[in-house]
Every structure is written in structure tokens, then in C-alpha cells.
# Entry
Amino acid sequence: MMESGLSDQIAAVQERIAAACRRGGRNPDDVTLVAVSKTHTSDEVAAAYAAGLRIFGENRVEEAAPKAGEVARLVAPAPPPAWHMIGHLQSRKAEDVLPWASMVHSVDSLKLAQRLSRFVTSPLPSQGGGGGVGGLPILLEVNVSGEASKYGFRSDELPGAVEAVAALPGLALQGLMTMAPIAVDPEDVRPVFAALRGLKNALARRYPAVEWRHLSMGMTDDFEVAIEEGATLVRIGRAIFGE
# Structure
């Protein structure tokens, strides 16, 4: 898709975000668009960057690492975009995400958090992703719907996970993330988003020392409902880049 087409798609998505914020009585500045660029080329990402997007989400380490470097070259001398890891991350690949990711949405186990902490606190000289002042921003992935096919902590596991992860050096726990079930009607998944918001609010009361900034929830088919329920990060791919 040419840059002009991307600009139109991005403008349409941003208007939908703004409209959802108005319905929810929220400020659009409180919602960040993460453009899901998995399977899309570096040229497409560079065109989206030229059209105004600055944060991109990737699902696979193997695809993201070379793409981040190529996009940085394509947009130079402008600063490169930020990259978020939004897909399942195997703990054995934790080290590989650090050179490019400025946030990891999908921390779904204590083992993964421990490995991220280990590598953030003893970085390689070439690492330029997360782990700056305050640590690498992370979100805990929660399997709100209880689907066997989805990763994430169960709701009842969260207090223990928060206590353990918040104590790890080099990480900055900033909120929760979920993947909603696929549904024809976005209203069918509203309870999932409302439940994640409720979990965050309960954890914020119990662990006030944690900076509970973010709820990462909502994709192309349901992001408007997610925003109405409190999403601060929406992960949108198809509505921007097409199928």
C-alpha cells in the first residue's frame, strides 16, 4: 500500500479511537496506537512511519530484529520508531528481544520475567532496546477468558506474580495485557476487557508501589470496545496495513 493509502487508513483508525474515547469520556491522548506490523515489509513500516506512526508491534523475534534495523536505515536521519514485543515470547529467546524492544506486552510467566531481568541487568554492549532508566517496561499477560489455546497468568495467579515480578531488578511493571477471544460481535468480548480493568484496579489498590499505567487490549475487530473499557494501548494491524 502506498503512503497516501496508509495515511487514509491511519486517519480513519485515529478517528475511530477518538470517537471511542468520546463515548467512554476519555482523553484520546491517553490511548496509544501500536501498529501491528508482523508479516509486513520494512518498506511498508517506513511508509507508515512517514505517515505519522511511531510505535510498531511485532510478534516474532526472528522477524522483528532484522526489520527494526532495516527500518532504522530507511527512515534515517530521523529517529527510528519504537518497537513493542506483543506476541508470545519463549523464555529461551528473552535475550533476543532486548536489542530492539522498548516494551514487552506479553510476559506470561515468572520464568520469562526472570530471564528478561537477568539479561537486562547484564546487557550486551550492542543492546539498544529496553532496560533504560527505570528498567524495561513490561506488562503481565492475563488469560482472562480461560481459553486453553491462550497464554497468560490466570486471574488468581496475579497477586503472586506481581509480588515476584515487581521485585526483579531491571524491569518496570506497568500494567496488564490480554488477548480477547475471536467474536463476530465486539460486544461479546466487552466482559473480558471489563474484567481486565477490574483486575488492574484491584491490583493497584493492593500494590500501590507499582506504576499501573497500562491496559494493552483491543485489536482491529474490537479496539473500540476495549477503549470504552479503559485500554491505553491498542494493537491494530489489519485496519492499517490491510490483510
The longest strand covers residues 171-177. The two ends are 11 Å apart (CA to CA). The chain has nine helices and eight strands.
